[in-house]
Amino acid sequence: MIFGLLHGDLHQQGIIESICHLASTVITVTSGNNAHHAMAKTVHRKKSGKVMREEEFFSVTEDLTLSIVKGPSQSGHVEMQPDTKADPASNLTFNLRLSEVEREAKEKVALPFVFSQEKKSALLKQSQGSGRIIYEPDASDDFDEEDPDDDLDV
To answer: Which of 2, 7, 89, 121 could form a disulfide with 96 if both were Cys (CB 3.0 to 4.6 A apart)?
Structure first.
């Protein structure tokens, strides 16, 4: 795990955004509405792609201890909510969604190579065959007992 401290007033906004994009967790500390209170905004990106956000208000007392306090209109702990993603199919010129009738018809289609349990058991059942190969030569077969490689130019 790597920790870093980045002062936003010393770097360009593009660099800050790039580093925040690379980080799995970003904690942004801003001053509150008076000198004694501040707010910490936490954005945590999980490996699954889910983004969790949290806001906490805190204050630093005279003896340099940290205490979480309630904000003016919010509690100190805000319920974590995942980011909502935009629907990629919303602005298309064609329809990717299925109606209920289309969905039912799709579910009824028998797919090739998808066998019922009955057919699977019949195909996988051990048979009592002998495994012999029976070859019946055709009239066009050129079979010579004396030299099987007669057709090769050696």
So the answer is: 89
